[in-house]
Amino acid sequence: MKLRFLTPLLLLPSLAHASAVELLAQRSGDTAREAQAVALAPDVVITRSVVLRRADSFIVIDPTTEARIHAEVIAENEALGLSLIKVPGASFDVTAVSARDFIAGEEISILTVADSRDGRVLSIDGVNITHDVAFDESEYGAMMLNRCGEVAAFNVDVKGGFLNSSYVGAEAPVEGVMISAAGDWLATNGINISTTVCLTAEQEAQAAVDAHQDALDAIQQELEQRQADLEAQQEAIEAAEAELEAARQESEQRQTDAEAARDELQQTQAELEAAEQEAQAQLEQQQAEIEAAEAERERANAEREAAIEEARVAAEHKQRTLIFSAIGGVIALLVILGVVISLRKRKQQLAQAKARFNDVVFSGHDGGGNPFRLRVDGGALLHAENGLVIGKNSQQANLVLSHPQVSRQHARIWVENGSLFIADLGSSNGTQVNDIPLASGSATALKNGDSVHFGGVFMKLEILA
To answer: Can you give the C-alpha Rg of the chain in angstroms?
Structure first.
């Protein structure tokens, strides 16, 4: 339930929305009694039942238009002496019914058509109260309001006059009853009780103090929270600065590492270049040594062949001299014997030539100066039925020449009638003998000193003695 806060002593402005109306109880067309009523709904008013007795009709005067509206009783609470009256077509300002009882000493007022008069609650006994606001006979039915302008109590009937047979007004202290005593009856008849609680001046002041304290507490909490936020922000800033410093140091370290790596890379590059130059120099030196050795070997072969030829010529000359010096039959015998010996010797040489073949060496280099050398066993070459295959695939070739421009089966060499032959096997880059390309499958004889090119490998043939 909500609480209603009002400033103490400002009661009358709150009653501006309360509506008191004049009620006329009539009998046989004449006004038997004038009384007061309070609107609890736009077209329903409440009054004391005593003013309605012995009346056969009722008129309510609209305080705004002064229209006289015929009304009828719709409910009566005999125990409390209260009646609800329906006023058809009316649209009164509604006075709320209090959700709280009075407390002793609380401000109170009586609402009449003419005015409202203030006072205080003098005493409380259950739902019964006494107060100091007097009323006269014409103000029967007027309700007692709290400081919020809500109906909170009603006055009890007061008899006076001869033998106490008539109802009169009352002087202080006046007796009354809390409206809460009629709460169930009002609710049953469709009258709503206020959903807010009207505070006393003391309660409102305390509530204001509490609200102010709550506001101060909220401000204090907000200040503390802001302080905590500021401290958290400061810590975050310090943490961010620390991270930034760490990142800067890490960046500097990475820069240092990168420079060291660059220097090391440059040194390694220089060492590699030096190693390449040294390797190239060694390769050139080896090539020069190979060429020098080849030239020396050719020179030695030429000298050996010249010596053999010279020895042969000398032997023939000596033989002719001996023959010419012989006589008659000796000459003939020697001629015959020489012929026989010559035939035998030739036969032996032919047999020896057929039984063996000298080793063969292919040596040279590729276009990049890389050396290559193949030594072929003469006996194996002589006795190979289909000769020997030269190629780069060890599974398909007898003599392996590992080079990208050499085919798996590049060429074939063999011995026939004491001579060495070669044939190209359809290689991708071809075979040349003395710079003359060989047609695929064609054969040509080789002799000592011939140049043989297997694709991009340039070699020279040497038939060893």
So the answer is: 72
What stretches in the chain show pLDDT beneath 70? 1-18, 159-169, 322-332, 334-335, 338-340, 342-355
The number of helices, as runs of H, and strands, as runs of E, in the chain is 4, 27
CA-to-CA distance for 325 and 318, rounded, in angstroms? 11
pLDDT at residue 349, rounded to an integer: 53
Strand ranges, E, within 300-434: 360-366, 371-376, 388-391, 399-400, 411-416, 419-424, 431-433
Residue with tokens 């020895």: 311
CA distance 198 to 182: 18
The residue type at 3? L
Contact 382, 357 (CB under 8 A): yes
Distance, CA of 391 to CA of 221 (rounded, Å): 94
Domain 356-463 has CATH 2.10.260.10: no
111 contacts 15 by C-beta, under 8 angstroms: yes
The reported pLDDT for the residue numbered 448 is 95
Q: Residue 423 pairs with which residues in a beta bridge?
A: 412, 443
b/e map 389-407, b = 16+ CB within 10 Å: bbbbeeeebbbbbebebbb
Residue 455 DSSP SS3: coil
pLDDT the model gives residue 15 = 42
Report residue 137 as tokens. Answer: 């006979």
What lies within 8 Å, CB to CB, of 386 at 6+ separation is 412, 414
DSSP E strand boundaries for 115-190: 116-125, 128-131, 143-145, 151-155, 159-160, 166-167, 174-178
Q: Is 405 helix (H, G, I), strand (E, B) or coil?
A: coil
What distance in Å separates the CA atoms of residue 381 and residue 420, rounded to the nearest whole number? 9
Separation of alpha carbons 129 and 123, rounded Å = 6
Domain ranges of the chain: 2-199, 356-463
**Site of tokens 């409202």:** 116
Domain 2-199 has CATH 2.40.10.120: yes
For the record, the structure tokens of 223 come out as 């200040």
H/E element holding 342? Answer: helix 328-355
SS3 404: coil
Q: How far apart are CA 373 and CA 334, in angstroms?
A: 50
Sheet strands (E) in 78-189: 82-86, 107-111, 116-125, 128-131, 143-145, 151-155, 159-160, 166-167, 174-178
What are the respective helix, strand and coil percentages of the chain, to the nearest 5?
Answer: 40, 30, 30
440 contacts: CB under 8 Å, gap ≥ 6:
424, 425, 426, 427
Torsion angle, CA of 264/268/273/274, rounded to 10 degrees? 100
| Dist. CA 310–CA 304, nearest whole Å | 10
